[in-house]
Amino acid sequence: MKKIKGRMDESILVCVYYGPNGERLIRRGHKLANMLDCPLYVLTVDPLPYDEFDAEKSGYIERWEELCEELDVEEFIIRDNEKRSSARAIAEVVHHHNITQIIIGQSPQKRWEEITKGSFSSALQREMTFVDIHIVSIDRTIKSPEGTSYEKGVRAFLQKDGESYRLGFTRSNKNLYEGIFYKEIGTDFNNGVFKFINKDGKTCQLHVTDDKITGAIKEEPNVVKK
Predict the structure, then answer these.
(1) d(CA 65, CA 107)
(2) Are strands 149-150 and 142-143 parallel, antiparallel or unpaired?
């Protein structure tokens, strides 16, 4: 049985989307809800129907549901198969649950997009009134199991360079594979990890140092043998 909240004139909605920052936003909303002693709701919106979610999306949903149960969240809401804009879907939930405060995440890169496209928070404000919107800066980096931090991945190519192999960032007839390069945080050189799918359909990972392929290969492909 859920604990009755002390204040019912305030209620908080956390809006999450797929990625490693959803849990952080939920915990931020939980702290604020505890301070105000008010109900907390968590919402995710997706244009796809629930039964078409891939394994990664389903994994995030399961984790958020567990976290909401752990934190005694009032309700975890999924708006799947949503054909309206996210802002309109959120506005409907806000109206139905008498939400007074919303928490959303925003990466630093998105602030540049606001100049030409307008911000998501502005779209929300056009759909509703008398609601406070909290924007939490989210981390766009990726951490490996070993704790190494990487920047958001960019498209790259694996090229043969004499007897060795190196990374390239432009299309060329020398390219063997196309993949994603994750650069280590805190380095001015191209050090990091390159991931691609080989001819057998296996995902392979290569370590990169100064553009050159180094170290062992996970899920050994048909090429690039040391």
Answers:
(1) 24
(2) antiparallel
Name the amino acid, one letter, at 226. K
Residue 107: the pLDDT is 56
Number of C-beta neighbours around residue 203 at 10 A: 12
Pick the CATH number of 12-137 from 3.90.660.10, 3.40.50.10070, 3.40.50.620, 3.40.50.300: 3.40.50.620
Task: Return all residues near 195 (Cβ < 8 A) that are at least 6 apart.
Answer: 153, 179, 180, 182, 203, 204, 205, 206
- Facing residues of 208 across strands? 192, 213
Token pair, residue 11, equals: 């209620």
- Strand residues in 86-148 grouped as ranges (E): 101-106, 132-137, 142-143
Q: Are 100 and 108 in contact (CB under 8 A)?
A: no
Given this model, what pLDDT does residue 114 score?
46
For 8-23, what is each residue's pLDDT tens digit?
689 999 999 877 788 8
Tokens of 19: 């990625």
β-bridge pairing 12-15 and 101-106 = parallel
Amino acid at 214: T
CA distance 41 to 29: 9
Q: Which two tokens stand for residue 24?
A: 């952080």
Phi-psi group of 105: left, alpha or beta (phi > 0 → left; psi -120 to 50 → alpha; rest → beta): beta
